[in-house]
Amino acid sequence: MQTERDQLLLTVRNLARFHREHEKFYSESPFHDVIRLQRNSRALKALAERWSVVAPSGETSLSPFAGASDLNDDRATETLGILFMEGGGEPAEITNLKRDLSALGEANRAIGQWLASAMSAAWDMLEALLSYPELADLLAERHRIVSNDWQCASTAELIARNLDRAVAILGRVDFTPAALRADLTAHRVVPRYLFSASEMLDYAADLAAHSAVLTHENERRWRIFHERVDQMVGAADTPGGNEIRPEGR
């Protein structure tokens, strides 16, 4: 019959095994978001740079599908497919960009809230390990894992806030050709909005990269902690293994 001690060690071993594997994924996946956000940022900067200096076109076209020579930038078209057409409104790629950024922000918010709750529970549970002398030298390592993950939770929520605000900034821009040309002949406010939005995406990308680094730092800590708990469980399963027990029991 398993004792409370046995059950705790088995639970601790289970967490060390499966969450270590889980974090291997999260030490890599944020970099996919980093690349995605940086590409989006580059496209917005390309448009902002062009619209900061280009003169509005007075050309007319027989086709509503003709590209707007003054508004389009090859870098933005090549990177995200953004194409302004003479007879069109807001390019579909701009609409999709805002939608995708909103979805990514919401995903980060959900992850951050879940992870913060999980790490709060984990921190409380780890107090029980203080009574195991066999883990005395690894207590800081195991708590550091939780601390890093807690930082990742806060980082995810901060990413969400930056993405939400970038979308709100983009929402201040009328991306129809007529409105953009009116801005080109007036105060050129639109490029400034785009620079700000792109810089918020840059910061969100930096935060995502930092989150991946924090998670990757946990790998060695998970490995040595899991090995130690494995040894303790193995010792408890062998004759004479009862000498491995928490203090006071």
Task: Walk me through the structure.
It is a single chain. This protein has 249 residues and is mostly helical. The protein is built from seven helices and no strands. The C terminus is likely disordered. It starts with a helix and ends in a 13-residue tail after the last helix. The radius of gyration is 26 Å and the shape is rod-shaped. It has a domain of 165 residues. Helix 1 runs antiparallel to helix 7 and helix 4 runs antiparallel to helix 5. Helices cover 70% and strands 0% of the residues.
Number of helices: 7
What percentage of amino acids are in beta strands?
A: under 5%
Tell me the span between the first and last alpha carbons.
17 Å
- Give the total of beta strands: 0
* SSE pattern: HHHHHHH
Shape: rod-shaped
Report the uncertain regions.
241-249
For the largest beta-sheet, the strand count, sense and barrel status come to:
none
Helix content: over 70%
Radius of gyration: 26 Å
Category from helices, strands and their pairing: mainly alpha
Mean pLDDT: 92
